[in-house]
Amino acid sequence: MNFNALVNHSNNTTTKLDLLPEIRTAELQAWMIVAFTLCIIGSFNNIVVLLITFPRPGRCKVAGLHTLIFHFICINLFLCLVDHPIRSGFVTAKYHGHIIQDSVCRYIHVFYNVGWIALSWAEAALAVNRIIAMFFPHKYREWSSKSVNLVMVALPWLIGFALILPVSFGIVGGMTIQRLGQCGQSITNEAFQRLYVVATYTPHVIAGGGSLLIVWKAYFAARLRLNPSVNEWSEKTQRTLQRRLRMAKMLLLTFAWTMFCNVPYFVIVGQFAWLLDANPISGLWQQVASTSQYAFTPVSELSIIVTCAR
């Protein structure tokens, strides 16, 4: 998640990064190394999981879930393989004295912000898919058809482009190069800013609330299975309940990991913005946290696929 989209810390210069204390220069160099290393690790993890989970006949009976997970991993791969390296490259270029025009952000920032917004909504789509499976199993086949899956895959990107393009092309805001080379955006239209905030937080509410509901439902069903009056349940039904409980736990873990990687920076921006103004380099470490999210989240998605295949 990129909270620079909501708050614009502007110190926009296009000259070489001079006058940085030596310790800050060392910190910036360390950030560059860590950022690019995580991008490489994340790309490798996502490619491996993508190859393992590539949709094919007979791989998993839950076709709708499999398609959504495959789409989710593809977005993570895009952010690790293309988007974050470009963002890190901008900072590196600025560090070495290259001049970057504000107009470049109009295009580069689109891909980054659309990517993380699409990722948020794709995670929400996974939660909705599991909610339907757990609470409305008789409707699941209808809600996991190819047409519904297509909507679930396309909608996150449509929302992302609808939110970012008006800002990038100056309709309701603008883009600037910040002091360290990051692209920052500011929204000048108050109504659109409220819509932007709602549209970027809603998927996290859906994913978090959905995960808790799924865990509660799966846990309740597992406890019910231990009741002597229902011990007549077939072995197949018991295996299904156990599988759903494991999948519910993995979805909750994915959401918790997302919050762990993003909430600290949000708290800093909201309550301690002066820290970022005093040391802009510290804000770059949020990108390391978000890259970690994109790099290691697919591991939990692979666990869901493995659970599904059992």
List keywords for this structure.
2 strands; single chain; mainly alpha; 310 residues; 75% helix; 9 helices; two-stranded antiparallel ribbon
Write a structural description.
- 75% of the residues lie in helices and 3% in strands.
- It has helices at 22-52, 63-95, 102-135, 140-143, 146-168, 190-225, 235-271, 273-278, 280-309, and strands spanning 173-177, 183-187.
- Mean pLDDT is 77; it is low at 1-15.
Structural class: mainly alpha
Task: Tell me the fraction of residues in β-strands, as a range.
Answer: under 5%
Write down the secondary-structure element order: HHHHHEEHHHH
| Number of DSSP E strands | 2
Helix content, binned percent:
over 70%
Strand order across the largest sheet: 1-2
Q: Output mean pLDDT.
A: 77
Largest sheet: 2 strands, antiparallel
Radius of gyration: 21 Å
Annotation field: number of helices: 9
Uncertain parts:
1-15
N/C terminus separation: 33 Å
Shape: globular
Describe the secondary-structure layout.
Blueprint: H1 22-52, H2 63-95, H3 102-135, H4 140-143, H5 146-168, E1 173-177, E2 183-187, H6 190-225, H7 235-271, H8 273-278, H9 280-309
Antiparallel strand pairs: 1-2
